[in-house]
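3.2 Worked example (two chains)
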Amino acid sequence: MLKTIWLKTVRDSWRAALAWGLGLGLLIYATAAGYVLLYPTAAGRKAAMHDLGPLLNTLRFVGGELVDISTAGGYTTFRILGITPVALGIWAVLAATSATRGEEQRGATDMLLATPHNRANVLIQKWLGFSLALLAITLLFWLVVAAVWPAIGEPFDPGAALLMALNVGLQAWLWGSLAFLLVQFFSSAAAAGITIALMVYSFFLNNLAGIVGGIDALAPISPFHYYAINKPLVPGWPFDPLAFAIAPLLALLFFAAALYFFSRRDLGALFPLLGQRRGSLRPAGPLDWRERLLGSVFLRGLRDLRWPTLFWALGLALYSALIVAIAPQAVDALKSLAGSSGPIASFFKNKFDAQTYIAISLFSFLPVLAAAFAITQVASWTSDEEDGRDELLLTTPQQRWSVMLQRFAAIVVAIIVILVVVGFIINLTAAIVGIGYDAGKMWAAMFTLIPLTLLVVTLGFAIAAWLKQPGTAVAILSVFVIASYLDQLLGQLFKFPALALNLSIFQQYGQPAITGLDAASVSWLSGAMLVLLAVALFGFQRRDLAKG
């Protein structure tokens, strides 16, 4: 698979494609199966629509426009499919920036252009390989849903499911193609951060239309506005081919612009903006702060993490602020369930207060998002080795164990900064809207996220340390996180044995936002993290480095 550029690009992505396709399909199954288990009868589903309607309408900035949730397809659309293209879009952006500016920064593109390939051909083949990998995810996603949906016992339309998967995949394709364009103007990390930030803000812009006055007119500028027009899994929902075509048209437009700029800039340089001169040199003088942050592996790690830390902190803070800001309305909607005898009312056990709302709506998802950040750091660590940067680093007087520990320490700092910023924003938002909740329990939940996130990081490091090609660790780790989440989600619904439930790291995290700091949970997560770090150090110390 190395005979052509596009085949190599597909080969580099096949593990991630397999993990994402299976993971998304199983997530749809878990959501639909849980719904059918909670509401097995049509009468119960109609009652749920009546009881949950006010609450779900309050939370529409996450799920989008409320649809008829009296069917498994409708509930799954509202519960999962609103956010699914954002999750897949993050992978698409990272894959696009790595295949383009990432390889350029590593010097691989210089060697590639020394072969009989012109610039346009190189970029077209990279984009083709990226597009085929994304298509493979989309089709595998559909096939998994088609295979498992009959087990739920609900009506299934293969054509509607295919349109659903294509709608998700095309939205991710759009953002990946935008990343191809932005890497012509920014570094790999900056382009990825900017694209993901635009995607997240575009998502919220569309979902907040109808909730926040004055922004309805802005919703059509968001690509998610056109994605949300089609909801194939909702029975009887009309299909709009024009809205469906917006995403691929924008993807083609973005790539055409990327091709134009790539053909007209120096390799390794950024396309000049605002009158910048090509190849301009800075006069010799004292080192600036970026150069000073190259004095050690730890400082270099902090420098490289500054943009990811900023964008993740801002994104999670925005999400958390929105959850807390609507707490008064959400609590009122929850109290309306007090007279209901449904499973949701039983789940809350008559604790319809801001503390329970924040714990359930926010801290059920923050651990998963923190694990996603950890996976990106493992991907960065393994790419450094496979691209040969670790070989250069280890020619200096650096011990292997020291290199890994310093990189790990930089990640620890980044995680703490992100969680402190998010916690501060939660407190600030709660003070502004005037809700009463236990801030101590919120900080306990934030504190417990530190060992949980670091456990995912060290597990990835440990897997990578014992593989000939450490990049495989990213796919394995992604599958583990998805399986761990599904274990907790399905285990509570289907009453898994305690042993099976305890295999989930999210089960071990518990609910500190409700119960407060759990010393046993923190100790277990921290102990497992230290053991995995020792395994990673031992394995990295003993094996040959991967050959790029």
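3.2.1 Second chain
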Amino acid sequence: MRKSKAARPAVLTYVVFAALAVSFVLAGAEIFGHAWHSGFWLGRLSLKWAVTLLAVYLFLLAVLAAVYAALFSKHGKKKLLDLFSALHPWRWWLIALVLVFSLWLVFFSSYAFLLRGFFTRASIYAIPLMLSTGLLTGKGAKSFDWKALLLAGLIHAAVIVCAKALILVNSFPFALHWSEGNRLWDYSIAFGSQRYNYSGSEPIFAQIDPGRQLIWGLVYLIPNVPIWAVRFWNAVLITVPYALLGWVAFRPLLEHRRQWLLAGFWALAFLTQGPIYTPLVLSAILVALVRRQPIWLALPVVFLAGHYVSITRYNWSFAVGIWVVMLCFCDAVLQNGGLTWRDWLRAFALGLAGIWTRGALIIQGVVMGLYNQLVQGIQVVDTSSSPLEGSQAVENLEGLRNVVTQQPFIWSRLLPNEVYPPGILLGLAVATLPLIALLVWLARQGYWKTVFWQRVALWLGLGAFLVVGVIASAKVGGGADLHNVDMFFVGLALVAGVAWESGLAGRLDALLNSSPTLRSMLFFLAVLPGLTAMVTGGPQRLPDAERTEFVLQRVQGQAACARQYGDVLLMDQRQLLTFGYLGDLPLVVDYEKKFVMDRAMAGDAAYFEQFEADLASGHFSMIISERHAILYKEPEMEDTLGDGKVEENNAWVHWVTEPLLRHYESISDYRDVGIEIFLPKERNFDCP
């Protein structure tokens, strides 16, 4: 046994070194692919690229040699450790310098588009990580420290995730991606509706839930807040709450404060893999804050958390109730070694409070619907008066059925596909299996004590979250990332806090020295989120300031002209109204792009009959939208026009583009900012 245990670290070391060597070789091949055809100085290489390639290859070879020496040569390891010991006083400055340079190179520099290959990005991630590990290894150490590697991995992951969020912070007046511009408009309605020239008798309708509109809209309380500040607020909301959840879910044990601090960094990186919508994270923070408080205090806070998620997304209606039951059972075992009737009563009361606003009504509606159908034979009638209202009425059996079935499922998105290359199942496995394996290992080794009913609650709760998330990811409009598996991600993070407190915190140092299995799992937990963020991030492709100003002035002039002849409809780019780029142009609420897409995916023929009637009558003097073309896509068809998802694109073309182009014609196509402007074909005016 001793012999096999001694052999395991050596095998792992060879595997790690081989993986690094292969990554460097493939990174060199990716860069070579960009360099080829650059000139004729050497083959199809220009002189500049030939010199650049030589420098890159020599650098990668030197790094690989240093890693080989550190892993397999006692003399080489000693030399490197002596070097890092000499640099130890300046370690934090050097780590910051290395990190900033690598992030600038990948996320903000003009070279980023040449360095977008997977293995190139992986190498740019691995090299600073290894340097930071050496710098964080204790002065005078005889070997590189696993704790230093994990610390470096968590720091790098947190910083990379924050840098990736900051990419979108700029003053560019047009939308940065498909829905960004209209989302900025959505968020402004709650606290910034006075920004709009709106004469309608009804409140301004925006297809956004109150939960998201509330927190993203807070920034509009600042008078004349600029667009860059709103984008910065978005960057804060998709990073800081993730870290806060980690710091709340993991208790700040006095003797383990450093581990607790790093738990926030880990939660930030882990949840960003979704990414997870902030309202769900904020509700989880409330649940974690009162998990051990007296029930008189916990009840209203849990109710508030459950109410907040229920007004945000209907499929979150049971999230708070399930989380709180899981935590009640886990805390009972952690504190008392088992469950008592008081623990069951507390779990029931808090769970009910968490689902009271909507979840309990859904259960009541489903039970009554099944009773009427199965026992009395009464046909349940959909009481909704329109597809929109029916899509929101989930508190009865028929309404819930409509919501689940009104849009088709695309099960192929669970597997590798062109929309999300790894596919939902593989992407989810990479993101969560290291944590799941760690939790199972801690329980099986006895480091985290669990009892039967606690395990039942955990498996049923997390299993329900997983099934619902996977199904939601397969619906049309989903499957582009892991955000629909959000309740599962947050549930795992909360359970991780319990497991850490139960057995891992006090044993971590000893287990890192004795357990290769634990080291491997923690390595992947610390490293994979940062690697994912590094590989998937990149700078925005934006036109220069002069071109941006020219297009903006053209749009302003054309809109000012068209408003003299009727309503100007902004299907897209409504942030131009939000931030005053189009002056006091009247707001037309109808036919906002995201809502229109939702109706298209649902195949709502009645809605589009009215849409075509308005187009045929020339109701709008001008329509500002994204680019349009009658282009039905097939899987793997490459084109920059339209939605990259085949089914969504084809629904949009059928229901929106075809009727639009029957009655309107394009007069301006500003494709570098994603805008096309249309005027009625039958008109007695022109706005050049």
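3.3 Remarks
The two ends are 83 Å apart (CA to CA).
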